Amino acid sequence: MVFRDLRSAPDNALLDADIAIVGGGPAGITIARELANTPFSVLVIDSGGLDYEAEVQTLNAVENVGEPVARAGIEPVGRGYSGSQEWLNEIPAFELRNRLLGGSSYTWVGKCAAFDEIDFARRPWLSLSGWPIGRDNLQTALDKAGDLLNLGPNLYDEHLYERLHSRPTDLGLNSDLVRPFFWQFSHERDQHGEPMRFNRRAREINATNIDFLTHATVMEVVLDHNGRRATSLNVMSLEGNKAVINARTIVLCGGGIENARLLLASNALMKSGIGNSRDVVGRYLADHPRTALAHVTGRDIARIARHFNFYGLSHKGRTHFYLQGLSLGPDMQMREGLTNCAAYPVQIHAADDPWAALKRVARGSHRTLARDLSAIGRSPGMIASGLYNRLIRKRGLPHRSTELRFDVMAEQELDPESRVTLSHQRDRFGRPVPRVDWKIGSCEIKSIKRLAQVISKEFGRIGLPRPQLAHWIAMDDDSGASFTDMAHPSCTTRMGTDRATSVVDPNAMVHGIDGLFVAGSSVFPTSGHANPTLMVLTLAIRLADHLKARHAIDRGRVASGRLSQAVVKTA
Fold first, then answer.
1. Which of 120-129, 139-148, 191-200 has the lowest mean pLDDT?
2. Is the pLDDT score of 386 beyond 60?
3. DSSP labels for 389-436?
4. Residue pLDDT, tens place only, 497-539
5. CATH architecture observed for domain 1-109+197-287+419-437+490-571
6. What's the pLDDT score for residue 570?
7. What is d(CA 360, CA 358) in angstroms, rounded to the nearest whole number?
8. Torsion-angle region of 455 (φ positive above 0: left; ψ -120 to 50: alpha; else: beta)
9. Which residues contact 475 (CB under 8 A, 6 or more apart)?
10. Distance, CA of 468 to CA of 515 (rounded, Å)
11. What is the dihedral sign for C-alpha 157, 161, 163, 164?
12. Residue 434's beta-bridge partner residues?
């Protein structure tokens, strides 16, 4: 494995690879790992370097003409980051992308879940729903992705109960309306609490057939003169160094915005962009509209938190914790024509919360040291009960909090007018920046409201404190709703069999362009409500298997051809 930097390479260098992977984020690195120690040469190309560089991140700029927009008198909703990652809330919509080796894993919190069965199904009440592959066909790749992410078993509903060390109380919720849903968090194996960083996974690759090229921004995908096959990539560094990369196979792993942008901007031969003869590239942009549904305060926090918190289980010698929330029941989605959505608990810790104070002290923070030590010293009972909960019962820690919220992330019904196009604005390379017009439809707003209403009603029925609904939900006033993106852009190069509504085929190859593949959330046929990384890696592993088979066949043909020529010469 070799790391090359385009800034120090000879100008106009010519590089060759069997497989060129554009983007060194979780998708690209996963594909590279799967191709390690195969007979094929692989080059991973990233616009950034090995570490975060502010100058490179300016290339993430977009012209945003859609949601989220500021509305008079309505409090904007942030992305919900806190602590050392609070700065991420200030990054403009659709610019929270990371140009460096490791990609989005540089700023994520590790939250993972698999898509539900209903996410793969054809749902008559949702246009363009249904995947060309079923969840059963992805199970092997899903489990492999879970192992790579250091996750526990891929169980995310009530089937998880039997595996938990101490199972949640059966609250008697009406499963026709609302059901339990769990998330788990990917952590580094040797640093508990530190989200998995894929730059480390890249450095761990020990294979002579895998190389990396950093500070290399792809300007264009080049096709053969017939426009039927991808042949090479033109790349450039911010300092102006250029190179051409010839490859038999090219895989775009740039994310939901950049994958679409690169196809649209590669228009030297096809004026509307590669794979865009039907004007589909960039359409159907979906994210996960996020907002706060409801909240409780005071003593009600503890009564809710004891049920909606973390639960642990042992798996392959490690303890894994799952966060319990609630999602709309599939039957209710079908009956009322709703999208899939789920609510998760968020506790706002008090300034004197002893466990938050302990974490700060353990990390060496001195800014609030005196206050933290005081909070710890005044809370021996809470610390003792927390240790018992964590170590014996495998449960979440008790916190002193000022508020417990239920936040929501929702699936979107696909809208062809929600899209990424090319702006008249230009970046430092002179390329058009992405013009993002994200639209949030009435179906997902209706679904979010119904989830909030059902949770409130069900809590009252079973004797839990009824949370105070967000004002716009309580007043049934959609104009008062406020949403933010979650940096989960999806579906802009969606997978399908109909070229009129999809960009790549079920093997993730761009329709009509041999050798050009796309990976990442941009190929999701629908977005679901779950955080995308686990499914991104699942599809990446599936694609890597396809590339192995494809290149093995090609090598066999070449070998067969050589043998035939030798026979002819001998004769």
1. 191-200
2. yes
3. IIIIS-BPPP--EEEEEEEEEE-----TTSEEEEEEEE-TTSPEEEEE
4. 999 999 999 999 999 999 999 999 999 999 999 999 999 999 9
5. 3-Layer(bba) Sandwich (3.50)
6. 37
7. 5
8. alpha
9. none
10. 54
11. positive
12. 422
